[in-house]
Amino acid sequence: MAQSQNTSGAQRTIHNTISRSAISDSLEPFVSAISRIHADALSEDYALVFCLQTFDELFMAAGLPTFRLCSGDKEIGNATQGMLPVLCCPVVRSSLGLLEKRRELFEKAKMILVPTTCDWKVKMADYLSDFSTLHLVELPHCHGKERSQRRWQAEVRILVDKIENCMGRKIQTTDLLKAIKDSRRAQTMSEQLETVRKSGKISHAEYLLVSGAYFMMDAVQWSNAVSGVLDAVKDRPPGSMPTVGIFLAGAPCIFPNFKVPEIIETCGASIVGDELCNASRQFWDITVIDEANRGNLIDSIANRYYQSCICPSFTPNQDRLSRIAVKMQATEAQGIIYHVLKGCHLYDFERFKAEAFFRNNKIPFLHIETDDGLEDMSSLQTRIEAFVESTRGRKIKWQ
Amino acid sequence: MAIAVGIDVGSVAAKAACIQDGKVLATACMANQARYEETVRQITEKLMDQLDLTSKNEVFTVACGYGRDMAQANGGTVNEIIANVKGVLYQSNGERSPRLIVNIGGQDIKVIFLDEDGGIDHFVFNDKCAAGTGRFFETLARILHLDVGELSEKEHAEESSIKITSTCVVFAENEIINLLARGFESEAIITAFNRAVAERIRDIAGGRNIPKSVVVDGGVALNRSFIRNVSDVFGRDIRILPQPQRTTAIGAAWAAWERMNEKIS
Lengths: 399, 265
Description:
By secondary structure, chain A is an alpha/beta fold. Chain A is built from 16 helices and 8 strands.
């Protein structure tokens, strides 16, 4: 597929990942999907989505493909110069950079769906308000309250109406059931992928490329392609080098910004698990079916994207740390690196609680704050290297 | 006889140390040149000039710091945080090991907490900001037309009435000029900045629960009036090692010594 001239960051990351990969053939479908955002034209109908609230099952049931436009592309973000505050969420900067560079992507979308996850996303929606296809899903931030849950379900029902109007047909119960099944299969494939990552059979860069491509693929295509990766690594021996297992938490490291994971892995460590909303966390929560009627299925799908979500934008958010701890324990990681994207205040707020929690539990913890620029590579490497060295040989005693 | 050399190519200065038979024989320090390769060549020469070496002496070198890869050291590289800890522990020989090291380098501040065995418990850095670093004190000295070394002597005995709002190098420059224009003496300005930087370092260190045994190193540790402020703000006695700006180079030399002995055995 044709590439625009402004994809050098993306091309570099793809090249770095593929050139070091022994399973490059099986990664091809993901590279092809991830490159679509830079393609000259997208012929089919599609919706644009953001954040974790992508409602895969609803869009799949309606037959409308989605592209998640959260991006970590600094070069594309540079197109917003003079438009945004200096200290701006880099993900929003990159997404709005796409608006500047690839306006036709937004113009041709049948729907642009923005959940009000944080202030940055709300202000981002302001920049998209010229598009009549923009639809905001209001996320109630007071978690755990019944009225919040009801408000959320009502929001999702409105979304269903919007999608149906957009497609000119009603979403049927059978469509929903099939979409839920397909989505669950993707979650199962993701679990298997995490297992091979933990064993060191694939690098974290490979893992990030695969999980990041989910932004641009539907659950069926993605699951089939993951199946190809699993086949390719089946007979591969587990990672033989003695490495330190690191759990990566905090703000997302979105394609093509693989800076932090790459530094971690060049410092003699392996990322054995993560809670990033662009990587493993997009597959954590499943749709629990209570009764298989249409209304109930829609509510169940709504709950999947809300009830257990541990996005730092929620309050109260006690579950966030306990869920991270449970996931980390399962990976047998020896330390946790908490990544904050400069400009993302929510993850920055949460890191103080995280630091206190993990230190009190005698779990090696390193906080790093960076953005998608490359100028601090050397100082990040110094810290991460010292952390990895001081963590080597330690075994966590979980309470 | 083999000697172990450590070279710390920092952001502002290069430091080197040499260890033989487990003892520091010589150290050297110089400002960086425009090219790191030239800095490494000159610092090595400066160190070797102090030693009475013959061609039979095998030299085993380990490098650390920002320019470590330029040193092409035959013993490889060591992480500068680990070298810093090694250097402090080496020089604390026979004494109780510290529980907190504050290293103030040319453009960063590292706060390293140690466990009771001298292992790294955790550490904190300043992020992408030169506030309170060597670079900051250089700026202060330059605007006040002083040599950096003179900052150590210039301080008001009593607390300064000036309240500094920012220790950011860029904003501080404006603030110093503004204070001078309002007629404040250099001594009062230095006193106020010493206090503000000490408070910033306390904040980086987490504010509370400062361990009892604290070492401050890096070139800024030579600034006695600043260290008095750190001691006051931390509420702790501060230990300054004999050559605080060379601690990390000594640690790298110690790493070289350890690796050399591993190789021999």
